[in-house]
Amino acid sequence: MNHLQNAMECILFAHGEPVKRDDLANVLQVDPTLIEKEMEELIALYTDKGINIRKISGGYQFCTNKRYYEAATRLIQGEKQVRLSTACLETLSIIAYRQPITRAEIESIRGVRAESSLHTLLERGVICIRGRKNAPGKPMIYGTTDQFLIHFGLDKIEELPNYQAARKERK
C-alpha cells in the first residue's frame, strides 16, 4: 500500500460512517479521480479479509465480511439488537419501492393503518418526510434516507432487488 491508500484506510476506519469520494479528495488534497483509482485497489486488497470496503450511500465504508458476520455478532450478543416489527418492515418496503408516497397510499396498499409504523421508522431514521403532495389536504410524502441505505448496505436505492423478479421466484 502507498501513502495515499494508508491515509484513506485510516480515514475510513476512524470515521466509521461512509465517506464520500470528494470529501476524501478535499481532506487529502488530491484529485477525486485519483481517490477512485486508489480506492479500487484498496477494495480489491480487502476482498478476502474479515472486513471489506464497500461503496455505501455514495461513499466508502469498512464493513464486516458477510462470511464472518455470525462470528462477529456472537461477541456482541450482549448488546440489544433493535428489530423492526413485520408491520414496520412491510411499511418500509412499500416506501422503498414506491417513494415518494403518502400515508394514505401506504395504507391503501397494506389495507391497515400505518401511523405507528411510520412513527417508528421516522424515529429510527430510515425514512423521512420529503415534503407535501400537491393534492387535497397537502398530505406528507415519505421516502428513505441515507441511514436506510447504510443499514441495508446499498450505495443507491436502485440497488434494491427487483420486486417483480423476487415475487416470481417465490411462486
The tally of beta strands, per DSSP, is: 6
Shape: globular
- Name the CATH superfamily classification of the largest domain: Winged helix-like DNA-binding domain superfamily/Winged helix DNA-binding domain
**How can the largest sheet be summarized?**
3 strands, antiparallel
Rg from C-alpha positions?
A: 19 Å
Tally of DSSP helical segments: 9
Helix proportion of residues, in percent?
40-55%
Terminal CA distance reads 48 Å
User: Which CATH architecture of the largest domain is right?
Assistant: Orthogonal Bundle
What would CATH call the class of the largest domain? Mainly Alpha
Q: Strand percentage, roughly?
A: 15-25%
- Count of discrete structural domains: 2
Q: What is the mean predicted local confidence, pLDDT?
A: 89
CATH topology of the largest domain: Arc Repressor Mutant, subunit A
Strand order of the largest sheet: 1-3-2
Q: Which regions have little confidence, pLDDT < 50, spanning 5+ residues?
A: none
How would you portray this structure in words?
With 171 residues, this protein is an alpha+beta fold. It has two domains: 3-72, Orthogonal Bundle (Arc Repressor Mutant, subunit A), CATH 1.10.10; 86-170, Orthogonal Bundle (Arc Repressor Mutant, subunit A). It is 51% helix and 16% strand. It is built from nine helices and six strands; from the N terminus they run αβααββααβααββαα. The chain has helices spanning 3-15, 21-28, 32-45, 69-75, 86-98, 103-110, 115-124, 146-151, 163-170; strands at residues 19-20, 51-56, 59-64, 101-102, 127-132, 140-144. The strands form two sheets. A three-stranded antiparallel beta sheet has the order 1-3-2. A hairpin with a 7-residue loop joins strand 5 and strand 6.
